[in-house]
């Protein structure tokens, strides 16, 4: 919106009103506007307050728990002592697997949608499917993972099944983000290389993809940060209650931060005693996710608007 | 001779290009296949449940007690009502606050203010639901118990508050886009008639953005219906019909999440959980489809 234009209009309006119209009504109108705008501001502040309360509560209660031992040791004495090292690494590993499954397919799908497909019925159907996939509840992905990966393909409950399930869950985000990144590359880049007589694929992978990589990376990290915090899809596809060791193969089960937090806050036999561990786990989890988010935002801002037509 | 070699090479490139295109097409169509795959697998795994459970009982009884020693009961009405009660509860506060905040960001806040506010609201979207569920247990629950004088605060209100918090970022960002998309001319025409900005916002801009705002609310609702961990942890885990807003409940999603870990594969109970999953899928699919149609009515198959 152009604020200057509106200001000008308001000045004109004020003049008109001064000359001809009822001043009393004018002032009640302005009062209404003042109250109204303040109500809107209040609503916005409520949201800010919610964010602040959640984050500060977890930081305040969790920061005292964080220590070198908490980060680097496995749980001890029935998970009432020790650290969360296997849960941290489990989450890191499963997130890497998720990336392996979802980023390539996501990028390839985006290349099809933006570079090859004629815009029409098929692309509309695909885009609709992508948006609907994004709205499928995460627990339904969990059910699907159990039926397909754990049962039918025989991968059992393993980090592989969990990674595949989370890969499906993040796919809509990776496709959408990659497509936006490809769209941001100016057409002149494509034309320049095509005019030299190279093939379409050659043009895409030398003159389009390299420029879209920061955008793809941003979107992928955002999608993965969501996957890292998901619990429902991994509940039955591979997350383990407690394992002292790290997963050593694709068929191992694994501990994960979100699942660990769930157990520590609802399932443990002595909830009161492990509350500090739960706070510490929550703090580590949101720190990990916020770091991923800030990383993505940093990449985006660094490469934004780099293209010249 | 050289010409023929060149021609053959040309043909080879053409095949290669075609193969590459087909490869990308397969990846492109994947989203459609996965969506169909999810639904058909849910249904195939869900249908065997009705060999033993009457489909009428499933959809009309409010008794959910699959592990009862005497007679197992598989009625999902209580679970559906539980889901709907927290969903409606969440929208009751998330919709007014979300739309108001969207209007503020789009029409009142300056560009600098917006640049600070928007990332903070985005942080809310990135908080995992298990963390919000934890907040429901350690923070919101005790707070509700104290205010209303209850023994514990894991109930419909708690779930509604958490779901509302989760729906807020969706509602704010999509409503804001809708409000921003209202053509400047509309606003100028109104302002030129001597109305002020508040009047223009209420009588011109918001009504013009109504379809987009509706879609935003639907998307928020879809998220609330499908949310699992937060409601599982914060609503008391009681699979029965909610009596009032202080009742402990258990939603469809929470039931799946809790019981899927305990059931042996390929039992009736196991299949009923997939049947619940199918119902859940259909519900969220409908809600998302409607919002999708509303949002993309005027786009020519374009984002």
In short:
The complex is a heterodimer of chains A (309) and B (303). With 309 residues, chain A is an all-alpha fold. Chain A has helices spanning 3-20, 23-62, 68-72, 85-116, 121-134, 138-152, 159-183, 187-194, 200-229, 257-267, 271-303; strands at 75-76, 81-82.
Structural commentary:
The complex is a heterodimer of chains A (309) and B (303). In chain A, 75% of the residues lie in helices and 1% in strands. Chain A is mainly α. Chain A has 2 domains: 3-63; 68-308, Orthogonal Bundle (MetI-like fold), CATH 1.10.3720. Chain A starts with a helix and ends in a 6-residue tail after the last helix. Chain B has one domain (55-302): Orthogonal Bundle (MetI-like fold), CATH 1.10.3720. Chain B is built from 12 helices and 2 strands, in the order H-H-E-E-H-H-H-H-H-H-H-H-H-H. Chain B has a two-stranded antiparallel sheet. In chain B, a hairpin with a 7-residue loop joins strand 1 and strand 2 (73-74). The radius of gyration of chain B is 25 Å and the shape is flat. Chains A and B meet through helix 1, helix 2, helix 4, helix 5 and helix 6 of A and helix 1, helix 3, helix 4, helix 5 and helix 6 of B.
Key features of this structure:
heterodimer; A: 309 residues; mainly alpha; MetI-like fold; globular; B: mainly alpha; 12 helices; 1% strand; disordered C terminus
- Helical proportion of chain B, percent range: over 70%
State which percent range the strand residues of chain B make up.
under 5%
Instruction: Give the strand order of the largest sheet of chain A, numbering strands 1, 2, ... along the chain.
Output: 1-2
Structural class of chain B: mainly alpha
Biggest interface, CB < 8 A: A-B, 107 and 99 residues
Main β-sheet, spatial strand arrangement of chain B = 1-2
Shape of chain B: flat
> What CATH architecture of the largest domain in chain A would you give?
Orthogonal Bundle
- Could you state the oligomeric state of the chains shown? heterodimer
Please tell me how large the radius of gyration of chain B is. Answer: 25 Å
Largest sheet of chain A: 2 strands, antiparallel
Radius of gyration of chain A: 26 Å
Mean pLDDT of chain B: 90
């Amino acid at each position: 919106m152009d604020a200057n234009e509106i200001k000008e209009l308001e000045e004109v309006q004020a003049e008109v009103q001064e000359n001809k119209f009822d001043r009393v009504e004018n002032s009640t109108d302005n009062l209404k506007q003042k109250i109204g705008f303040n109500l809107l501001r209040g609503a916005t502040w409520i949201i800010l307050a919610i964010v602040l309360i959640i984050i500060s509560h977890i930081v305040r209660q969790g920061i005292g728990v964080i220590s070198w031992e908490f980060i680097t040791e496995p749980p001890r004495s029935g998970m009432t002592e020790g650290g969360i090292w296997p849960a941290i690494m489990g989450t890191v590993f499963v997130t890497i697997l998720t990336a392996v499954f979802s980023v390539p397919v996501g990028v390839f799908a985006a290349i099809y949608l933006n570079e090859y497909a004629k815009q029409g019925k098929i692309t509309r159907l695909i885009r609709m499917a992508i948006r609907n996939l994004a709205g499928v509840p995460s627990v339904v992905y969990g059910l699907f993972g159990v039926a397909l990966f754990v049962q039918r393909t025989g991968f059992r409950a393993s980090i592989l099944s969990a990674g595949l399930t989370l890969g499906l869950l993040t796919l809509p985000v990776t496709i959408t983000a990659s497509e936006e990144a490809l769209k941001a590359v100016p057409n002149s880049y494509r034309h320049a290389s095509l005019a030299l007589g190279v093939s379409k694929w050659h043009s895409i992978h030398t003159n389009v993809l390299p420029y879209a990589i920061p955008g793809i990376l941003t979107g992928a990290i955002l999608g993965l940060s969501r996957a890292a915090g998901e619990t429902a899809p991994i509940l039955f596809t591979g997350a383990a209650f407690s394992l002292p060791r790290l997963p050593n193969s694709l068929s191992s089960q694994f501990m994960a931060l979100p699942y660990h937090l769930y157990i520590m806050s609802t399932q443990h036999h002595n909830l009161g005693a492990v509350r500090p561990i739960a706070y510490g786990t929550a703090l580590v989890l949101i720190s990990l996710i916020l770091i991923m988010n800030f990383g993505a935002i940093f990449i985006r801002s660094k490469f934004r608007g780099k293209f010249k037509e | 001779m050289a010409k023929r070699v060149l021609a053959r090479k040309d043909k080879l490139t053409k095949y290669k290009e075609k193969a590459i295109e087909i490869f990308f097409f397969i990846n492109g169509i994947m989203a459609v296949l996965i969506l169909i795959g999810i639904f058909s697998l849910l249904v195939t795994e869900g249908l065997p449940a009705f060999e033993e459970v009457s489909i009428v009982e499933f959809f009309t009884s409010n008794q959910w007690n699959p592990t009862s020693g005497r007679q197992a009961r598989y009625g999902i009405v209580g679970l559906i009502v539980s889901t709907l009660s927290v969903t409606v509860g969440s929208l009751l506060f998330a919709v007014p606050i979300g739309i108001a905040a969207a209007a503020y960001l789009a029409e009142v806040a300056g560009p600098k203010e917006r640049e600070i506010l928007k990332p903070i609201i985005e942080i809310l979207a990135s908080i995992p639901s298990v963390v919000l569920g934890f907040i429901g247990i350690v923070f919101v629950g005790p707070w509700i118990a104290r205010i209303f004088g209850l023994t514990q605060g894991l109930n419909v209100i708690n779930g509604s508050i958490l779901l509302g918090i989760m729906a807020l970022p969706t509602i704010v960002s999509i409503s804001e886009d809708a409000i921003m998309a209202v053509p400047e001319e509309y606003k100028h025409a109104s302002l030129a008639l001597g109305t002020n900005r508040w009047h223009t916002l209420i009588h011109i801009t918001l009504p013009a953005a109504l379809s987009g705002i509706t879609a935003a609310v639907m998307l928020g609702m879809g998220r609330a219906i499908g949310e699992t961990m937060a409601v599982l942890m914060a609503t008391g885990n009681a699979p029965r019909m909610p009596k009032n807003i202080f009742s402990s409940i258990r939603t469809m999603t929470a039931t799946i999440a809790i019981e899927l870990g305990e059931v042996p594969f390929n039992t009736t109970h196991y299949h009923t959980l997939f049947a619940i999953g199918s119902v859940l899928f259909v519900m969220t699919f409908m809600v998302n489809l409607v919002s999708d149609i509303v949002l993309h009515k005027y786009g020519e198959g374009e984002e």
